[in-house]
Amino acid sequence: MSLAHSGDGEDPVKQRELRKLWRAWRTVHEMCQDRGYELAEDEVKISFDDFVRQFSLPDGTADRGKMQFSARPSESMIKKFTPPPTAARPDPPTECGTIWVEFMTEQQIGVKEIKRFLQHCSENSFRAGIMVTQGALSAQARKVINATMMYTQIECFMQDDLLVNITHHELVPTHVLLSKEEKTALLSRYRLKETQLPRIQQKDPVARYLGLKRGQVVKIIRTSETAGRYASYRLCV
């Protein structure tokens, strides 16, 4: 019997909230996995019943304080984010690391909450962090995040924006991030400057899903009835 229907006195409002959180929890796991982080399949594809067992309180509300996880980059992700060696840097370090994801318990996110999140990432050597919030960030909170981008890459997603994985929509083509070497090879092959490439905004929903940074190039693979599979490239700006 499903836990979602195991009792007669369940609050439908609490059930709806749990289902929304479950969907957002799955989407953010899929997002991390698609970026190249290592996650077990049962974590990514957690069922609603298992989610309720792990993350609900006796009163039927969600235990947001437990909704957090970290993930390490896979070998392929490390390779993609490691710059090519040069004479000056024969063994360059990778530009990616472990990510921390947290569903924020606070209704409003201001400077205090951002600083607490940043401190946690710093103390635990997380190279990146994702905050899933219940509401929009304050203007001052966004300024703090922008000021720390050089040290820790912090991203914020509202919970309601993660209820559906946009990359699963049939009209959204496959997007694949190129490594620096692949980007250089692409520009060399077509004798282009990167500014000559079509652009994708960093705030584009798929760009946000993949965590694209300015200057990165993404390969977009589409399927056509006449041309079959074909690729185009866009520069993140």
Pattern of helices and strands: HHHEHEHEHEEHEHEE
Identify the quaternary structure here: single chain
Question: How is the largest sheet built, in terms of strand order?
Answer: 1-2-3-4
Tell me the CATH superfamily of the largest domain.
Answer: RNA polymerase, Rpb5, N-terminal domain
Task: Specify the biggest β-sheet.
Answer: 4 strands, mixed
Global morphology: globular
Identify the CATH class of the largest domain: Alpha Beta
How many domains, as an integer? 2
CATH domain fold name of the largest domain:
Dna-directed Rna Polymerases I, Ii, And Iii 27 Kd Polypeptide, Chain: A, domain 1
Into which percentage range does the β-strand content fall? 15-25%
Helix amount: 25-40%
Through-space gap between termini: 50 Å
- The CATH level-2 architecture of the largest domain is identified as 3-Layer(aba) Sandwich
Organism: Grosmannia clavigera (strain kw1407 / UAMH 11150) (Blue stain fungus)
Keywords: Nucleus, Transcription
Protein name: DNA-directed RNA polymerases I, II, and III subunit RPABC1
Subcellular location: Nucleus
